[in-house]
Design brief:
- The chain has 21 helices and 21 strands.
- Strands 9-8-7-10-11-12-17-21-20 form a nine-stranded mixed sheet, with helices on both faces. It has a six-stranded mixed sheet with strand order 3-4-2-1-5-6, with helices on both faces.
- The protein is globular and about 110 Å long.
- The relative contact order is 0.07.
């Protein structure tokens, strides 16, 4: 191993080398301060005593720099926080030296302290000198090593000269392993045009790319605008696609803010980036007070929504987080992810079926959760349409089982993850979710002042297991056709972080007995979604990849609704969350109906069970062969 590698790979040797460099720089600053103080013509004594004092002042300064983390930092990284720490270390050490000089002068006539003017100049020159040392090291790495060899590095144009783009360009400059070098910025803001970021020019608006692509020899483009609207992203994708120029984008704002990934984790542009609406900011209400130091349970923790609930709740400092799921592989996956994120001390994975009352009772009696988020459910519409008994058991009786235990063990809040398909349902999945909502509202009305029961409805969740997007993606990978049920079918869409954010916000503002719905914007035509996904994959819709219309499936609507006619809208403190309340039937009546259905869930015919559901949910319009 050569000397350079030895220094880089051993932190203690690196600290010693940096201390020697600092010592030489500080000695030069001390000498320069004396020379400047005495008009560049110091006498022997005027130069002798400050340099002699330097012998005891140097350890004080080096120790202060060590305490402020300026010995063990990576030398090639130097930014404003590092400058602030360096200046603070030198300022405090200079103050200590000043006080010590006064003390030693008072007790010994032989001690000669530095002139105060020299002390002040030493402080100024030391801060400037060590800053120049660190900048020189950074410049060496960025200006020389990071550009060798340039011919092997991918030349990148960055769209977005804001903080995200600047950070990305900085990482490209300082990390040779990144394999890319930024050569040009493009931005919609005219105020940034003709300027530079980290020495890289901001050429102009992105629409100039076709004109300058060859001049800058661009190999690819990175879209570094995490907050850009879906409309603008679609325009940029169309532009880059027409140029046949490869492109990537940054992680989502949520991923970067939560610390899940860094700005350098580039990814392909996905369909989530092209949604026909902007992301809803649902973080204006702080959910941490109801979670901090509390035991929180999440059922269905291995599912798409349950797993994201676990991620966001874990970051809110709960005392314990119970991960409950009947699927061992799904539970193991989210457990390992949370362990990797540093939450191993608070998570408690529990393999359990929400229909197993004895097992669930054991969990509740042992851990006594204060908050329960009930995400366990059967959610696939076509599957449940032909197996209504399973939907009733899991979606309705499973909810009732967990809700009763939450009440029995004095949970503060219980939140049911529901669906917009529960509104005037035409399928078994939605109808059984509506049955669960009714049961919760009746249970809440029968037990005022106790557990706050509430439900949260939202539309299709992008990227969740079994949703339309993974299905379309597989069909595109197979060469088509992409199958859409109807040319006019529309659905509301949300991202998983949005959906979970809504759940947490609703849990804070919920008073009990209500149903919350997010303003999900304008519904999206599924056929448009299919076309955009085909284009993102580099194909032409209906030429390279065919779109095939298969007809509406049993229980499927063309349009989803937002509320039942009997539900009354009540405003909330959040502008994007609606609250719906209604007068539920008496709990005894609801339980009596459920007890009549229970004996038939395993043995009853589909048509009979659907008729029983309709008796419970009058607005349900079942599909019966």
């Amino acid at each position: 191993m050569n000397v350079s590698n030895l220094i880089r790979n051993n932190r203690h040797i690196r600290a010693v080398v940096l201390a020697l460099i600092y010592s030489v720089a500080l000695l030069l600053c001390q000498w320069l301060a004396v020379v400047v103080r005495f008009d560049f013509l110091p006498e022997h004594d005027e130069l002798h005593f400050p340099l002699w004092n330097f012998m005891w002042e140097l350890p004080v300064k080096l120790f202060a720099l060590l305490l402020f983390g300026q010995m063990y930092g990576i030398m090639r990284y130097f930014s404003l926080p590092d400058f602030a720490k360096l200046a603070a270390a030198l300022g405090i050490s200079s103050a200590i030296i000043f006080v010590a000089s006064i003390f030693f002068t008072g007790i010994s006539a032989n001690f000669h302290s530095d002139p105060r003017g020299v002390m002040l100049l030493v402080l100024v020159f030391s801060i400037g000198g060590l800053t120049l040392v660190r900048l020189a090291i950074r410049t060496y790495w960025e200006g020389i090593l990071s550009k060798l060899p340039t011919e092997k590095r991918v030349r990148v144009g960055i769209i977005g000269a804001g903080d995200a783009g600047a950070h990305l360009a900085q990482e490209m400059l300082s990390r040779r392993s990144f394999g890319m070098t930024a050569v040009a910025f493009f931005d919609d803001d005219p105020g940034k045009w003709k300027l530079s970021v980290h020495g890289i020019p901001v050429i102009g608006e992105p629409e100039l790319l076709p004109k300058v692509m060859n001049r800058f020899r661009l190999d690819k483009v990175v879209i570094a605008i995490p907050s850009a609207s879906a409309t603008r992203i679609r325009e940029l994708i169309a532009l880059l696609s027409s140029m046949q120029l490869p492109y990537q984008t940054l992680p989502s704002v949520h991923q970067m803010a939560s610390g899940q990934v860094s700005v350098t984790r580039l990814r392909p542009v996905d369909i989530e980036d092209l949604l026909g609406r902007d992301m809803v900011d649902i973080n204006c209400i702080n959910a941490e007070p109801i979670v901090r130091e509390k035991v929180v349970a999440v059922t269905g923790a291995g599912g798409s929504i349950g797993a994201e609930l676990c991620r966001q709740i874990a970051a809110l400092n709960p005392l314990e987080l119970l991960l409950i799921d009947q699927s061992e592989p799904a539970l193991f996956q989210i457990e390992q992810e949370l362990v990797t994120m540093g939450y191993s001390g608070i998570i408690m994975p529990k393999v359990a079926d929400v229909l197993d009352e004895n097992r669930m009772r054991n969990i509740f009696s042992r851990f006594r959760p204060s908050l329960v988020f009930h995400a366990a459910a059967h959610k696939h519409v076509p599957l449940m349409e032909y197996q209504p008994g399973e939907a009733i058991k899991n979606n309705t009786f499973g909810t009732a089982c967990v809700a009763k235990l939450a009440l029995e063990f004095n949970a503060e809040r219980f939140v049911l993850i529901s669906t917009d398909k529960a509104i005037n349902p035409t399928n078994v999945m939605g109808a059984t979710k509506r049955m669960a909502e009714i049961y919760l509202q009746s249970l809440s009305a029968a037990n005022p002042g106790k557990t706050r029961f509430m439900a949260v409805r939202f539309g299709n969740v992008l990227g969740s297991s079994g949703s339309v997007i993974p299905t379309f993606r597989k069909q595109i990978e197979a060469g088509g056709p992409v199958k859409v049920t109807h040319p006019d079918i529309r659905r509301y869409f949300m991202t998983i972080p949005e959906a979970v954010g809504l759940v947490l916000q609703s849990s804070v503002i919920g008073e009990g007995g209500e149903i919350f719905v997010l303003d999900m914007g304008t519904p999206i035509k599924i056929v448009d979604l299919a076309k955009q996904m085909i284009e993102l994959s580099g194909y032409i819709p209906d030429e390279d990849i065919k779109i095939e219309f298969t007809g509406l499936r049993p229980g499927e609507k063309l349009f989803e609704e937002l509320s039942n006619t009997a539900e009354n809208h009540v405003p909330t403190t959040h502008p994007k969350i609606a609250r719906y309340v209604t007068t539920p039937p008496p709990l005894c009546s609801v339980e009596e109906q459920l007890n009549c259905i229970l004996p038939h869930v395993n043995s009853g015919r589909s048509s009979e069970l659907k008729e029983m559901i309709r008796n419970f949910v009058p607005e349900y319009k079942p599909f019966i062969r």
